[in-house]
Amino acid sequence: SDCWWDGELLLNCSLTGVSALPEDIPQTAVTADFSYNNIKTFLCPDGRDEEWMLKHLNLSNNLISELTLTACRSLPGLETLNLNGNAIHTLTLDIPTPARESNRCGKVGCLLPALKVLSVEGNKLNRVPKGLGLLQSLQTVHLTSNGIRQIELNDFQNCSQLKDIYLRKNDITEIHADAFRDLHKLQVVVDLRDNALTTPLPQIFITLNFFQLEVDLSGKAW
């Protein structure tokens, strides 16, 4: 392929016209960039029971419309996943039944156990992806510029490590009063600029720790 491999850490396949992930991705790569291509489907690479060293995966600006993330046994160290600028309308987070039934979650049982940053900006989501709480290390979620219409009670359930939520430029008209109640580590921003909120939401703010949280609601009609 036209991908460039530095022989150690970086695999660069950006702007190479690939329509699928190459089968010969080096397992020692720490960063893999597949941005600006024609990829329509993403499946976790086949590690053949071996763990990959990949920490940063960039799939931005492709043609992905539906994406299902199951327990990627071969990617236990993945820390950032960039899906910006695709056409994703359905993002499904799921793990095998045995892992759901277990109270303990090892590297092979969790859904992307090291993932800290999930970025799905500029897609076609009309709701917050269900199951974010399965990403036990998730700290930042970027959902700017989608078509999300409301924030429901359980959208961020079990997201115990979540620090930053970016929801700017959606179609949000309603946010459940307790949607952020259990997010005790929120410390930077819940960015709600450029949405369609028409009524104040004081109950939400009462449930939040003002010493750690900065909520940006600028530009609202009220």
TrEMBL record:
<keyword id="KW-0433">Leucine-rich repeat</keyword>
<dbReference type="GO" id="GO:0005886">
    <property type="term" value="C:plasma membrane"/>
</dbReference>
<dbReference type="InterPro" id="IPR032675">
    <property type="entry name" value="LRR_dom_sf"/>
</dbReference>
<dbReference type="InterPro" id="IPR003591">
    <property type="entry name" value="Leu-rich_rpt_typical-subtyp"/>
</dbReference>
<protein>
    <submittedName>
        <fullName>LRC66 protein</fullName>
    </submittedName>
</protein>
<dbReference type="InterPro" id="IPR025875">
    <property type="entry name" value="Leu-rich_rpt_4"/>
</dbReference>
<keyword id="KW-0677">Repeat</keyword>
<dbReference type="Pfam" id="PF13855">
    <property type="entry name" value="LRR_8"/>
</dbReference>
<dbReference type="InterPro" id="IPR001611">
    <property type="entry name" value="Leu-rich_rpt"/>
</dbReference>
<dbReference type="Pfam" id="PF12799">
    <property type="entry name" value="LRR_4"/>
</dbReference>
<dbReference type="InterPro" id="IPR050541">
    <property type="entry name" value="LRR_TM_domain-containing"/>
</dbReference>
